[in-house]
Amino acid sequence: MRSAQPIRGPRWDIAVPARPGRLPGVTMAGFSDQANEYHELALVPHPAVTVLIELGEPSFVIEDDHGARQSERVVAGLAPKGIRGRGLTRKTACLQVRLSPLLAHELLGASSELGGTVLSLDDLWGRAAVHLQERLTAAATWEKRFTIAEDALIRRRDDVRRTVDAEVAHCWRQMVARRGRVRVEGLVTEVGWSRKRLWSRFRAQAGLTPKRVAQLIRFDHAAHRLAAGHAPAVVAADSGYADQSHLHRDVVAFAGMTPAAVAAAPFLAVDDVAWPDLHG
């Protein structure tokens, strides 16, 4: 297991699993902070469904522009508007799990309800969500917590056996491989479906339309380039935007802040530590 301190932003201690997981499409990190420096922190959207499970007493609230407000066991779907965290106490610890949207469909269901909002894991898993939180809190080490969480996800997959269309999975893989720089019409041709059918099936299983997901993936790549210190004009050109103004509009649309603010976002500052293999 690896622990590290980010260069800027709130001073979290971060733990990541020592070995690759058994379930493709899942990444996990453990966060703890004895000072809980932030009182309100804007969160930058990521092309994954995020599950946050607090360890111990409630220490923060996650909310979005729709008025959804959750704590303790939180699920954030793809690209919620104005998502932010509010600190409640001086001490916090949580496990964060990122799920590819298609795996989230298999494990959580309700994918169309997960697009653009936050909700409670209890709404999807019932009492099992509370039981999982209790076991994670009682575990003595992060490595044990990672194992407990992974075991719970695998059991859920095996019990539910919800499937994803091969055509939808193909489109998702192509979007990720090309960093969102795809033409949906080309994907329609590749899978042999009508545009209407692809739109309907993709949104039902991924939570957003194909076009919106491709835009989110492109935005995510650009956001990490900005956080790495690259100039907006360079990021715009390298990420497939028409110009710097196009990048600006997309960043504001997804994150609700300017490219300069995104570049300094604390959660992006820790991504290279918490998710070291995602943005090579």
Q: Top keywords for this entry?
A:
alpha+beta, 4-stranded antiparallel beta sheet, 11 strands, disordered N terminus
Main sheet summary: 7 strands, antiparallel
Secondary structure: helix percent: 40-55%
Give the number of helices.
Answer: 14
Roughly how many Å is the radius of gyration? 18 Å
Instruction: Please give the alpha-carbon distance between the first and last residues.
Output: 20 Å
* Number of E-state strands: 11
Written account of the structure:
The chain has 280 residues and is an alpha+beta fold. Helices cover 47% and strands 18% of the residues. The chain has 14 helices and 11 strands. It has a 7-stranded antiparallel β-sheet. A hairpin with an 8-residue loop joins β1 and β2. α9 crosses α11 and α10 crosses α11. The longest helix is centred in the middle third of the chain and has 19 residues. The chain is globular. The chain starts with a strand and ends in a 6-residue tail after the last helix.
